[in-house]
Amino acid sequence: MQDDWRRGTPTAVTTSRAMNVSIARTDVESLCRKHGASISAIETLHSGGTHVVLKNGDAADTMRKAFGKKLIAGTVVRTPWVRNG
How many CB atoms lie within 10 A of CB 22? Predict the structure, then answer.
């Protein structure tokens, strides 16, 4: 169990809203739109594929099922965020 910081009560551990998939960014955006899942953040991975963060856990669960075998297990190399200026 994990504490729900908003209510101060224990809750079940939830799944992450973030996932890595082995398909192109445009395909991820299309599938999310088709399933009514709103994207919070998205980036193309150097190794191929896409890192996507959905706006809520329910949408993430829906998209995990939709992506199926296209989900990438394990770690991936992401682009470091650089602030210019």
Answer: 16
Find, among 57, 11, 66, the residue nearest to 38 by Cα. Answer: 57
Residue 38's alpha-carbon distances to 8, 48, 74, in angstroms, are 28, 22, 24
List C-alpha distances in Å: 56 to 11, 38, 48, 52, 79: 16, 8, 25, 12, 23
The type of residue at 38 is S
The pTM is what?
A: 0.77
Range of the domain at 39: 21-73
Whether 84 is covered by a domain: the verdict is no
pLDDT at 81: 73
